[in-house]
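In this section we walk through a basic example: taking a raw amino acid sequence and producing a predicted 3D structure, encoded as discrete structure tokens. The instruction is simple. Fold the sequence below.
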Amino acid sequence: MTQTKPRPVPTGGTLGLVSPSSAISAESLEPGLAYLQAQGYRIKRFPSLYAKHHELAGTDEARAADLRAAFEDPEVDAVLCSRGGYGCARLIPHLDFEALASHRKLFIGYSDITTLHLAFQNVGFATLHGAVGVTFSKPREPWVWESFGNALTGDLIRPKDAPVGETVRPGRAEGEVIGGCLRLICDALGTPDAPDTDSKILLIEDTGEKAYRVDAMLTQLLNAGLLQRSAGIVIGEFSETDALSERGDSPCWRSIVEERLGKIRVPTIVDYPIGHKSQILSVGLGVRAVLDADRGTLDYSERLCE
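The resulting token sequence is shown next.
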């Protein structure tokens, strides 16, 4: 499938802020938006940004309408999600992803936003798995902003101060990068947006899952053949998993990763700085990269935007 790339965000460009998942308060988000404005970007808030419908940021129809409006708005240069949480899967019937992609706006988010990334990947549109609006409401290492700010221009060069991963299975692989949050990847199986991992580099991370659930989800991907068919695997962090273990004999999540993935003949690294970490690297989806599992690096061979 031929990939379509978003346009780069110009200096002083406008970020359209949407909340396609869980509700968020202005108190939590506005410090992050102030930081983005201090970096020279304009902010445009869409109507359901601070809405609340049960645990969601407004009704399904309202959240979908915000996404469509942000992509269609000629003032908006990139669409930035406020946070993840839950709810993106409920929007799938309300959205035409080919129509959204035709506007070539950079789409940014992670966590529950993985569902929307997978849908965009299904129509051949490249997106950015990276910081959400609330990310910058707390202090971050300088390389976090360097990675995010560069990615807005289409530059996916890894900052020199960003950490690298650790080797689970050595080797080198090149391919299109796909993936995101593990539970959302598993939720997509059996749907039209199930990921095609053949000869691709698969990113995986998650948060708040008990050890047995991490084992179960990785096992599901193994039983479905998705991990074995990938060119390479990049594991981020499973934050809070070890703390949520109910029994003292529960294995740590890294042991689960090594046991489940160490035996398949696919270059694999762990602890790469993606996902629900306090310090998060922004990485492109739908663009090609080289995974060097011996060095723990993922280096892109093409730009995200053009």
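Looking at the output, two observations stand out. The first strand starts at residue 14 and ends at 18. The chain has a mean pLDDT of 96. In the next section we compare this with other chains.
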